[in-house]
Structure formats: structure tokens, C-alpha cells
Design brief:
- With 883 residues, this protein is of the alpha+beta class.
- Helix content is 46%, strand content 16%.
- It has 31 helices and 30 strands.
- It has a 4-stranded antiparallel beta sheet with strand order 4-3-17-19.
- β3 and β4 (112-113) form a beta hairpin.
- Bound molecules: zinc ion.
- Residues 107, 109-110, 357, 359, 361 line the site of zinc ion.
Amino acid sequence: MGFHYTGTPILGMAKRVEAGDSEIIDGLKNIYKVADSDIKTFVEPIKIADYFHEEIKSGMIEMGYSIDWRREFTTIDPVYEKFIEWQINTLRKKNLIIQGSHPVGWCPNDQNPVSQHDTMGDVEPDFTEYILIKFKFEDFVIPTATLRPETLFGVTNLWVNPETNYEKITVDGEKWIVSAECAHKLEFLDRKVTHDGKIRGSELVGKEVALPHKNKMIPMLEASFVESTTGTGLVMSVPAHAPFDYQALVDFKKNQPLGSELQLIKPISIIQTEGYGEIPAKEAVEKLGISDQNDSKLEKATDEIYGKEFYSGVLKQNTEQFAGKKVSEAKDPIKKWLAEKKYSDILLELTNSPVKCRCGTECVVKILTNQWFLNYGDAAWKTKANKCLDSMSILPQEIRGEFKYVVGWLHERACARQHGLGTKLPWDKDWIVESLSDSVIYMAYYILAKFVNNESLKADNLTDEFFEYVFFEKGEAEAVAKNCNVSIKTIYEIRQEFSYFYPVDSRHSGRDLVPNHLTFFILNHVAIFPENNWPLQIVVNGSVLMDGKKMSKSMGNIIPLRQAIRDYGADPIRLAIIISAELLQDADFNLESVSGIKNKLISLLDECSKLKPGKLDNLQVEDKWILSKLQSLISGVSSSIEKMRLREGLHGNLFSFEGDLKWYLKRAKAKGRDDYSGVLHEINTKRVCMLSPFAPHIAEEMWEKLGNSGLVSQSSWPAVSDDVIDAQAIQSEELLKSIMDDVANIIKVTKMTPKKIMIYTANAFKSKAYHFILEKVMAGQTNMGTIMKELIANPETADIKKNPDFVQRTIKDILSEPVEIRKTKLETAEFDEKSLIASELSSITKADFGADVQVFSESDSGIYDPKGKARHARPFKPAILIE
Ligand SMILES: [Zn+2]
């Protein structure tokens, strides 16, 4: 276990404690039950980290996690800092850390870049580049933001919100009019901005602006959908291709007097797209039944048209030099043309705003100049990461595409901060390596941590040379030992352990870390380690919700967890979490399911205490069947765990198997047996073994009660014994179960009290035909006509033509069964239904219905068949008469 101390949130918390902030202090006292004497020390950030470190660790131990605590560390341990210095130096040598000016998510209050770990709700600030089209208004520029520069050719007017306060500003010497919010954003984008005055939106309404590329005037009209926080707070209107604009124009015209020349504004169609007519925006708006410009369905219409026009639209004749080009191909040339002619500018903007910093301030995009960046935009780096990804196992499979997508869009990322705990940049001590950069290859550090904790490794003389020897076997061990003041024995041991443990077999983490940590983990490994040490697997899980609250990373929930362990026990909590969700889903954990599970475990423990080991000889058919079922349980649970489908594995072992056990006990008891304790002992020994990773504490107790020696946690995982699987027994019990179901149904429908139950099994001829049909179905042939023809062509089964119904029903019987059962039937050609029923069925019918069974084959000479039922018998579907 490594404890990640790096970052700023803890600094903010310490400041709030120091300021006597009652919200945080009450929270610590009442929810987290921290003693006053401890809270007093929390003015020092490290004290907060240390306190919760111990709490979390105790919680993990109480939950029964199998953690090798010899390898525990924190990210501010001196040797860890040396390790991070080496990592950062290595990346810089490979030119993967560069100095430059790039955009980042930014908290104006903290003056720090922000990423997922720094924001409320753990959102990664996501931003994109908008094109600002510059319209001319008197001696001002009115810029409008768009992601679709090609639509400039279809612009009919601008939209202005009359309620908005716009600002007159000077941006790098040019006079602009934009919303106050936009002016604020521009200040962070490395632009020189001065404020010259204000202007109300209503003052702009009705005035005209000139298009940037030709001498044409268009009006500024009022629209309520225009938001001051989005773009520049002014919108260029392209009603033919933008549903918002189309609807705003419809709304606008409603309020204009008839005959007004503004009634004459018509959408200008500039893109031809298959499936759409002249005005795609109109079609989309009408299709979705949109009523006005504040209708939320407009977003959907916009996405749909944007996608279709981008991928399959072609620019029309009225788009000047770009006419005839596909939209997807014309976009970049149009951008370039606009920029060269100075018709445009750019604006970086958050696409998922508002994003709030944990300090409460709203984040912006900032161009950070002369800063240190990890060059995740590097094409060769991406290629390597994709190669690794392609050869890795990703569980669950469906999330692989998300990783590909993230590798695709990643770009330069600031890797240092000015405040917080962590390692200083080796070449620029004013900066600290940020928390998503110092936690990407730490798995390699677990190997060192053991030697740090037993004091054979000290930070003092460790150089990059040391890390290169133990991780890459570069250099001479003796020289490294001498230079770094580490014993040669330790160096060899570390090297040996590293070769043993690396590469990382499986990295497990939360879904919210796919866009950053988990992808950085791949990128940094492929950059630093040779291919034979690239990671092999990533497993992604959802969050655990406790009483509806997110638990990931909010340390607060850890203490209620410890309380819950005291109240309910660790095992019931573990199982209740696992049973509630499969990998990607959020596990919703509630105390009701905890007590249900607890009762289940208590009854299993009770059962285990009563069982004695016994010889597994003289097995009867039901014994052979339940032991066969046990083999399928073992293979099912094993394969679920291999796929990390823990819910499925636990459910199979603890709950689904109970149905089979119930039938088994019913059979054994009906026969008056008292000799099956050994079978149950064998079954529960295997089940407890498979329960052990899920409920480690109670499983040890059960193991001991069963009389087994040693610890179940150290015993081998059960193996499937193929020789125990008895196809004949499986068929026998399935047949008996289905007859019992049929008899029960007849009794239920007829409401009779049975005195005698007659069972008629099919004759040998039908059995032959059945097997022929089964073979055909298993080979993929299910056409009734074809099968019929082949049966008639064979003299042995030719008589089937007198009973065409049989073929159809048999195909149906077979198709309604699981493939496994079909295979079993195919393997055992000879199966004597009559003698099985004669010897096994009466005991259960007597127990369940108080009636005996008499069995006949439909071809028996002395058959008792007053209602002529026997001729309906089919193999595995005997006919039944109840009197
Ligand atoms: Zn902040």
C-alpha cells in the first residue's frame, strides 16, 4: 500500500483549520470523530495526512485485505523523492518533458493548474479551441465563437442578448466588444486586455455589422438563448445549419410586424448532406417537435446535424474557393484562410464548465508560459502507448475504446505546481511534481520500499545510476554499490525482486481515472521501461456508494466504514459490496443487504459444524449428480474470477448452488438415507475454499469446523475433476426433476389427490429417431422438412412418417435445453429411462404427493393405459397419467 500525500487539497484543509473554520472543525469532530487534541495539530498539513493514513490503514486491516505491509510507503518519503527525481530526469532526457506555453485548467484563486484531483466532484477540466469570427462594428470588432468556421458562408445575422452587460475592451491593440465573462477569460489566455467601458446588449440590438470577408452588412437581433458565459456572449446566426439559430429566427419573426424587412431574413443553405433537404436545421427542429429556443432538445438536434454534416456534408457553390469540398476536409483550410486574412482569432474555453476548484473558485483555461509539460501530444509516444494497449488485457473489455480515445486526444500536460506536498523538480527547485505525474510508475517502488523499511536502503547517496541498475541492469553492481553506499547484497536482492515482480500483472482502479491516471500509467511505463516490462492488465471498477454518497478518495467515509465493521463485521460488508454490482457499475451498499448476508454466513457456519468427513464410495445416482454439479460450480466460479466477475462468482457459490443442494437433500431424505454427510462435507469444503477470498475471516472458522487442517487461505484453489462428472447421473436427475415438475403441474391444474401415478416411456424406435434428430440439431440443422426427409430415407426410422408431430416436438424439446445437457445426451446414447424411473421416482412422489409410481414402456405388452396416453411419450418426455 502506498499513501499519496502529494497535492494541494490538504494545504487548503490545514488553512481552514488554522482559521478556525467551524464547518471543517465540526465535520472532523462529529462525523470523523477526531479528538480535539488531534484537530489542534491539523494546522500542519502533514499531521492531517499522517492521521488519516493511520485511520485508513487500520480500516484496511480490519477489512481483512491481504496487503504486504512490509512495502508500505508515502510519496514524500526521502527515497521515494529520489525515485521520482530519477523518473522525471529520465523523461526529460528522452525529450518527453518540455518547457513551453500551453493551456491548462487553472484556479485563479490558488494560482495553480488544476486537474481531477483538485476539483469539486473530481472532474477533469476539459477544454477546446473555438474559432472567433471577427465582425466589424463601427471601429470595433465583435467576435463570435464557433466550432464550425465553414458556416461563416451561411450567416444571416448575429444574436445579442439585450439583458447582457457587454464590455468594450482593447485586446492586443484591437478594440473588441464581448461579454464581461469573456473579457475575464481572455485575461488568462496570455492576451493584453484593457477595459474601456460598458455597453448594454439592448444598445446593440438593431444595429448592423459587416462580414469579415466581404462588403455585406447583417443585423444584430435579440435572442434569449444567448448566454454571456458561453463564448463571447454574442452568436453568429446560421439558421440553415444550426437548430438554435433556426428556432431563434422563428421566435424572432413572430414578434415582428408583418411587412417588416426583418421578416425577409431567410436561412442560407451552404452544405449538401445526404438524407437532408435544403434546410437541415428546420428538419431537425420539426422532427423533434421543438417549441422555442429554450427547449433542451435543441442540444440533441445540434449534435445530430453537426455530426452528419461534418462526416458526410459537401460545401455548396456559395462557399467561394471551398465549394465542392467535403466539410471534414474543408475545415482546416478554412481555419487557415480565416487566420491568414486576420478574419479570425481563437478562444480556449472549458467544455464542461462550470468546473469548481476545491477552494470554491470557478476554474478557467490559462495559457501557462515557460512551464514544464509532459509532452503527451508526442505522436511517437502515443504509438508506443497504443502498441502496449493492444497487447494488454483490459477488463471489462468494453472500456478498451475509452483508453484508445484518451490516448488519442491527450496533449501537453503541466507536470509541476508551485504549492503543495511532493518532490521538487530536480532542475528547478521552485516547482513541485504534481500528483498525477508522481503516481504513474510507483508500482516499481514497492520493491524498494521493503528495503527502505528494513533500513538497508537510505536516500542520502542514491543517484540515477542506482535506479538504472536495479530497473534496467545497466552498469556494474559493484560500482553502483560503492557510489551509492548500498550493500552489494541489497542491490542484488532488489534487482532479483524487480525481475520477479515486474511487469505489473494487473492494475485495478476506478472508472473516473481512465482519462488520466490509468492512461498516464501506460504512457509512463512505455516511455521508461523496455517492452518486456510493459503492464499486462488493467481492471476498471465503479465506485462504492455508501448511503448514496461517493466513497472514492473522500477519506471521510473510511471512518464510518470502521464503525460499520465494528457493528456488522468485515465479511458481511465485503460480500454486500461485491454482491451488489459487477465491475463497471457503482456498488450501492446498504445495511439491509449486510444483515441478509450475515444470516446466510451464520447458517453456513452452522451447517459446517455438523458435517463429518466420510468415504465417498457406494455413491447413489443423486450423489454422483450433486458431485458433478459441484464440478460445474468450481469451473463456473473459477472462470468468473478469472474475468473479475466477482459478483457472479460469489452469487454462484453462495446462492445459485443452493437450488441444487435442495434437490439433492430432497432426494436423499425421501430415500430415508443417513449416509450422505460425507458428500455434503466434500461439497462444503470446496465451497468454503472458494468463499475464502471473499469472506476471509468466517471462511477460516468454517474450514476449522469442517475438521480441515491448516488455513483455508493457504490451501489450494479447488480443481475440477473431470472423472467425477457423470453424464448418466446428470441426465437421470434432470429427467426426474422434469417429471416431478410435470406431475406437480398436473396436480395443480386438476386439483386432484393422486392415488397412483403412471409414467409411460417412449419405445426404442423413438429413441433412435431422437438421437438422429439430436445429432442433426447439434450439427446446426434445425429445419424440420430436411430432418424429416432424412429420417424417412433410413429404413430403421422410416415409420416416422406416421407421426410427423413427433419430429417437430422433439426439435423443440432439444432446443429448449442448455447446450451442456444436449452434449451430455449425445455422449450417452444408451439411457434406460424405464428402469431409472422404476427405481428412483416413487420415493419422491411418495414424499411430495403421497402416491406410488408405476412405469411402463409404450411398447410393453401388459400396459395399463386406459386413456391412451402412452403413444404421446417422447424420449426424456414420458407421458403421465394420474389417477
Ligand atoms: Zn482553488
